[in-house]
Amino acid sequence: MTVGCALGTVFGCIPGLSTPIALALVLPLIFKTDVHLAICLMMGIYCGGVSGGLVSAIMLKIPGSSAAVATTFDGYPMAQRGEGARAMSIGVFASFFGGTVSTIFLMLLANPLAHIALGFGPWEYFGTALMALILAVFLMKGDPLKSLITACIGVLLTTVGISPIDGVAERFTFGSVHLKNGFQMIALVIGVFALPEVLKNAGRIKNIKPAVKLEKKRFYLISWSDLKELFTTMVRGSILGTIVGILPGLGGGPACLMGYAMEKRFSKEPETFGTGNPHGIAAPESANNATVGGALIPMLSLGVPGDTNTSIILGAFTLLGIATGPIMVQNTPEVFTTTILAVFVANFVMLILQSFSIPYLVKMLSVSNIYLLPIITVFCVTGCISLNNNTFEVYYMMVLLFIGYLLESNDYPVAPLIIGFVLGGTVETNLRRSIMYYGSFTNCLSKVSIGTLFFGVSIIIPIIYLILGIKNARDAKKAS
Fold it and tell me: What is the spatial distance between Cα 244 and Cα 54, in angstroms, rounded to a whole number?
C-alpha cells in the first residue's frame, strides 16, 4: 500500500508521467502475485497518482496531471507570495478529504447496486456496457468524432483471436499462433499510454526547476483555522467529484475544473479567485480525488470502468482471474471487500506520506529526463516480455506505440481506445448471447427491460450531439 501510494505520488507529481503509466508499469509485476497484495498496490497508485499532481501545479504552475489543472490557478499565486507550504497542506488534506468521502459513497452504493445487477441477463449487460462506452466517448473532452474513432479501434482489437461464444472460430489471426488468444491488456496499455509519453518527453532533457521556494516544515498539515474555513468547500467538491467519477469517461480533469467553477460561483468574493484564494485549491483537489471512489462504483458493481485508470485496473482484475461486475460480489466477496478497504486505507496512507514527503517531491521535479525515461522504457519492454516469455508481445507493443503516437500527435484521445478494448468484449459477447436466446435482434428490442432503455439512450446521445453540431455550424455560418 505504502509503495503504491509513493509510486503513484511520484508519477503524479512529475509532468509528463501519469497514473495510467504507473499502473501500466506494475501490471507485469502483479501478473502472478497475491490478489489482495496486487489490489492494495493498484489502489495505492490510483489514490496517490490523482493527488500527486498538486505538487508541480503549486510549485511550477504546471499540473502533474490533467486532474490538477485548476489547482494552478490559486496554488501558484499562493506559492509566489510565500505561502507554498500552506497551499500544499490545504491541497494534501483536500485530496484526502475528497477521497475519503467518495470511498464512503463507494461503501454505501456499490454493494446494493451489484445485487441489483445480479438479476441482469445478457441483454441488460449489453445495454449497460454499450451505454457506458457511448457516454465515455461523448462526455470526454475534445472532438466526439475523434473519441468515437479511437473507441472503435479499441473495440476492433477485441475481435482478434478465437470467438468467445463457440471457442472454435478464429478471427483475424492470419494463421498466427500468437494471435489465437487475442491481444493482451499489458502490451496494449504500455504501447498506447506509457511509451508515447516517453517519446513525447524525450526532447525535453531537463525538467523545469521551481521558480518559487517552499518554506521548510517538519510536516505539512492543514491548520485548524483553514480546516474550519474550507470544510464546506471540501464537502461540495467531494460530492461533485463523486458524481462526476460515476459517469464514464470524465475522471479527475473535468471534476477539477467543475469543482473550481462551482466554488467560484458560490463564493461571496469571486474576484479573489486566481489571486491565491485557498478555496481555489480545496475545491478542485477535493473534487478530483473524489472521482476515485466514484469511478470505482460502476467498476465494482457493474464491471464498467469510470475512467482510464479503472479501465486498466479492470483489465488487471481479468489478468488476475477475478470475475468483475456483480459476479464478484457473489463469487469473490473477499476481493470486493478488499478493494473497498484498500481505497479507504490508501487515502490515510497518502495523507501521512505526502505530509512528510513534500520537500523531497519538490526536489524530484528537477530530476533530468536522461535518467527517468530510459528506466521507464526498460520496465516497459521487460514487462511485455515477461507476460508470455516471448518477444511477440514486444512487436505488438511497438505497433501499438506507433498507433498511439500517431493518435496523440493528431489530437486523437487515447483513453477511449482503452475503454473500448475493455468494454468491447462485453458488448459483443452479450449481444450474441442475447440474439441466440431471443432468436433475433428485433425480439431483443421488443423486450421491455432496462437493457432496451440503455440501448435507446445509446442511440439518442449521438443523435443529440449530431443535431447540436449541425445547429452550432449553422449559427457560426450566420454569424460570419
Answer: 19
E runs forming strands in 21-63: none
Verdict on whether the full-model pTM lies above 0.85: no
| 8 Å CB contact between 96 and 351 | yes
Q: pLDDT by residue (tens digit) across 223-238?
A: 888 888 889 999 999 9
Mean pLDDT is highest, among 242-251, 338-347, 368-377, for 338-347
**Angle 77-292-257 (CA atoms, 0-180°, nearest 5)?**
35
Question: Which residue type does 140 have?
Answer: M
d(CA 332, CA 336): 7
Return phi, psi of residue 161, to 5°: 115, -165
Q: Is the dihedral of CA 43, 371, 65, 93 positive or negative?
A: positive
For 446, the grid coordinates are 421488443
Contact residues for 176 (Cβ-Cβ < 8 A; gap 6+): none
Q: Write the pLDDT tens digit of every residue in 404-461.
A: 888 878 888 887 888 888 888 888 888 888 888 888 888 888 887 888 888 898 899 8
The answer to whether 21 and 193 are in contact (CB under 8 A) is: yes
Element of type H or E holding 162: strand 161-162
* 121 neighbors 445 (Cβ within 8 angstroms): no
For 460-472, b where at least 16 C-beta lie within 10 A, e where not — what string? ebeeebeeeeeee
